[in-house]
From TrEMBL:
Family affiliation: Belongs to the aldehyde dehydrogenase family.
Highest taxon of the lineage: Eukaryota
Origin species: Oikopleura dioica (Tunicate)
Ranges for domain Aldehyde dehydrogenase: 19-484
UniProt entry tagged with the keyword Oxidoreductase: yes
PANTHER family hit by this protein: 2-AMINOMUCONIC SEMIALDEHYDE DEHYDROGENASE (PTHR43720)
PROSITE patterns: ALDEHYDE_DEHYDR_CYS, ALDEHYDE_DEHYDR_GLU
Database matches in InterPro entries: Ald_DH/histidinol_DH (IPR016161), Ald_DH_C (IPR016163), Ald_DH_CS_CYS (IPR016160), Ald_DH_CS_GLU (IPR029510), Ald_DH_N (IPR016162), Aldehyde_DH_dom (IPR015590)
Residues at the catalytic site: E255
A Pfam family hit: Aldedh
GO molecular function: oxidoreductase activity, acting on the aldehyde or oxo group of donors, NAD or NADP as acceptor
Keyword Transferase (UniProt): no
Listed name of the protein: Aldehyde dehydrogenase domain-containing protein
Record key words, sorted: NAD, Oxidoreductase
């Protein structure tokens, strides 16, 4: 399969560039695509295009905007198989996960926000018979108006899934946008541009500029004509964006890192908890910000849980991502792979590893023998101040420690700078109402993981993020509230 030569998408046209970045398939190390290495000039051109399109797009009736967005969703569904294969080759995830989760959810993201604006409730009007200080009648109305050009920067772990979660609301609420996908996983973003053309989306409404974060991404963040930035990625980069944009007083939404805990109480369904924690630890090779990296088990059920947890972990077979039997694909990118392996080697040297063998003894088929694969890894008896417990690994590595009381479990769960999500496993109805409210995490799942109602706010506490996303929260971010007060003299009416 020849590498796909990706082009920037600006003002409804595709443009080549002078320099390209090689993007490789993590499973085979073959070049998947040639990604434009865009600079500030291309970003500026895209922003100008988005600015020019804003006036007409922002005043288009919501029902008309929804028609375009519904069409994009339908075209994603129609191209499911192709997009799933490209996502797998680009990112390293299993094609099954891309087919069942990533691509359908991308379509649903667009469809969800199209439905939201199809039933708008954004205007409030009040009538004051005695406007203060005058004999006149005042009519005040409050409505929401689009902000302008949105800068949307998405990560490499769920490429189309998370990019669509930004583009959908940005366009739905009347903004235009310039997107900067990860240079490591740009292929499905490029394919999305083609679908936008097919959907008839007006030129300039959505623009795509590819390249490195420190070049194209930084140019987008610092552009004076981009009043709002939505970013998903690491806490370190998110902090830099806040620092850079603070003097410019931009609206910023940041979805950042996590070191998510799970708590298994003595009255939990241990079979369900073991299966659920294996899924939350090793799904997508652990490359999901919501994955579990710390598991706290009541000491009375620790042995039973570990036996069943390891048995569940064994079901996450490592291998060719295009093989339907594979549940763990390759890690995305050599630097990230090296980082995860370094944590494994450290844990092994310290004697923490009870299951997993890193990059060794994987028995990979020849076509992926050189790929970036890591065996699911379980560590235990790790000191709470050790880096295995405190630092985000973002790979298929988790730590299991014990607790003896509810208070201790909550204290350990909260002993982190992050606050993205947590899971609680218990059959005690009083406990499952009480404990989640004491955990400092923006989302807490009880006896489940990664069940998402898109109407519910999503984001992070502490260093896991700034702002929330959902129907209402995304509307608040992608619009500004405007109050109009009109004064009338009733004596002049005929």
């Amino acid at each position: 399969m020849e590498p796909i030569v990706i082009q920037n998408y600006i003002n409804g046209e595709f443009y080549p560039t002078e320099e390209y970045i090689d993007s490789v398939d993590p499973a085979t190390l073959e070049i998947v695509s040639k990604v434009p290495r865009s600079k500030a000039e291309e970003v500026d051109k895209a922003v100008k295009s988005a600015e020019a399109a804003f006036e007409s797009w922002s005043i288009l009736p919501p029902s008309k905007r929804a028609q375009f967005i519904f069409k994009i969703a339908d075209l994603i569904d129609a191209n499911l198989e192709r997009l799933a294969l490209l996502e797998s080759r680009d990112q390293g995830k299993t094609v099954g996960a891309a087919r069942m989760i990533d691509i359908p959810r991308a379509a649903e993201n667009f469809r969800f926000f199209a439905k939201v604006i199809s039933n708008p409730e954004s205007e409030r009007t009040t009538l004051s018979q005695n406007a203060r200080g005058t004999p006149f009648t005042a009519i005040s109305s409050t409505n929401r108006v689009p902000v302008g050009v949105a800068g949307l920067i998405s990560p490499w772990n769920l490429p189309l899934y998370l990019l669509s979660w930004k583009i959908g609301p940005a366009l739905a609420f009347g903004n235009t946008c310039v997107c900067k996908p990860s240079e490591m996983t740009s292929t499905t973003a490029f394919e999305l541009c083609k679908l936008m053309v097919e959907a008839g989306l007006p030129a300039g409404v959505c623009n795509m500029v590819f390249g490195y974060g420190h070049e194209a991404g930084e140019a987008l963040v610092l552009h004076p004509d981009v009043p709002l930035i939505s970013f998903t990625g690491s806490t370190a980069i998110g902090a830099r964006i806040m620092e850079k944009t603070a003097p410019m007083v931009k609206k910023v939404s940041l979805e950042l890192g996590g070191k998510n805990p799970a708590i298994i109480f003595e009255d939990a369904d241990i079979n369900a908890a073991a299966a659920g924690c294996a899924r939350s630890s090793f799904t997508n090779q652990g490359e999901v910000c919501l994955c579990t990296e710390r598991i706290y088990v009541h000491e009375s059920v620790y042995d039973e849980f570990m036996q069943k947890f390891i048995a569940e972990a064994r079901k996450f077979t490592v291998g060719d991502p295009r093989n339907p039997a594979t549940r763990c694909g390759a890690l995305c990118g050599k630097p990230h792979y090296d980082k995860v392996i370094s944590y494994f080697e450290y844990a092994k040297e310290k004697g923490f590893v009870v299951y997993g063998h890193g990059k060794n003894n994987l028995e990979l088929p020849e076509n992926v023998a050189k790929g970036l694969f890591v065996h699911p890894t379980i560590c235990t008896n790790v000191p709470e101040d050790d880096k295995m417990v405190t630092e985000e690994i973002f790979g298929p590595v988790t730590v299991v420690n014990t607790f003896s009381s509810e208070a201790e479990a909550i204290q350990k769960a909260n002993a982190t700078k992050y606050g993205l999500c947590a899971t609680v496993w218990s059959q005690d109805l009083s406990r499952v109402q009480r404990v989640p409210r004491k955990i400092k995490a923006a989302t807490v799942w009880v006896n489940c993981w990664l069940i998402r109602d898109l109407h519910m706010p999503f984001g992070g506490m502490k260093t896991s993020g700034v702002g929330r996303e959902s129907a209402v929260e995304s509307m608040e971010f992608f619009t500004e509230q405007q109050t109009i007060c009109s004064l009338f003299d009733p004596r002049s009416s005929s």
